[in-house]
Fold this sequence. Notes:
Low-confidence stretches: 163-173
Shape: globular
Structural class: alpha/beta
Strand content: 15-25%
CATH architecture of the largest domain: 3-Layer(aba) Sandwich
CATH superfamily of the largest domain: Methylesterase CheB, C-terminal domain
Helix content: 25-40%
Number of domains: 2
CATH topology of the largest domain: Rossmann fold
Oligomer: single chain
Mean pLDDT: 89
Amino acid sequence: MSALPKADIPRSESAPDKIRVMIVDDAVVVRGLLSRWLSETDDIEVVHTARNGKLAVDALDRFDPHVVVLDIEMPEMDGLTALPLILKKKPGVQVIMASTLTTRNAEISLKALSLGARDYLPKPEGNHKVTTAADFHRELVEKVRALGRRHVAFRRARTAQPAPVRAVASTAAAPVAHAAGHGQISLRRVQPTRPRILAIGSSTGGPQALLTVLPEIAAAAHNVPIVLTQHMPPNFTAILAQHISRATGLTAKEGEDGELLKPGTVYVAPGGRHMTVAGTSAAPTISLNDGPQVNFCKPAVDPLFQSVSKVFGAAVLAIVLTGMGHDGGKGSVGIADAGGNVIAQDEASSVVWGMPAAVAQMGAACAVLPLTAIGQKVSRLIRGETA
């Protein structure tokens, strides 16, 4: 095993172009391993490690991290207690909660997201499994990198506020200048077919985005079934469904294989399984499968979107919310090409503008909107109002 990287780098000694990371975990093996993995990258620097939340809070001013990887279960001060103290002391810092895949930790992680954590990182159980988990390694680096860039954007936004994306209605796709330097995007004209199903895809930042949008569309949603893929591991999706049900008053549950879709019900793809829609538009059913990852995800958004387009044709309304990567992009193009409508969350309100960016840049969206405007737009489309 190679020597551990230097892990105490004050702000004054840090490379200015690197993402600064603090790792907080009571297991010395985990602290060392995560430090080494992150330090092997060219753009990430582990500036400090701490064995509990109290030590992490005390070290914030000196090490000024962009990202904190925060374990949940620790002695003296656990992650959930430390989280609000970290965010109060360092507004804008991106916190990733790390926990094993238990139902209790899933509940705690979702609570942490409601308190301001940006994402969660499921840890394999046991030090040996942590050291050999390739998916855990990849996900750690991807999430730290994406959220570290978000932190840089947060600081820049204090001095320069970009103009919002301007939605354009036209009989043909119209170019729209995107403010953050992503070039030109094109918006499709809103299609007139009234949706008979609402499909949603989300990832990083998705749980909180969902709990913003879904209560706003609950009244209109009694007319259509809602199928939802949120990138989440097992146990987490069942807890998410409970939170959605409490927030909206709608029935929300993990989808079950062969289940008939009912209006006014939210079907959440179970963690670790792909969920698609089968049957006919008159009698649509849930289909679950254990196939390989798609876009490095399972469940993935693309299989769901492709299936609803196949079953419902033009009578589909889809939303792509905040998330890393490009999952949902191809499926959104298929929905739009079949005559359905796709709405993407805008960059300014996204935790990570990856998935919705892919939809916008692939020309599949009829609107790119702030999170707070999506609910009203979706409700109108469900009611058949296209203007």
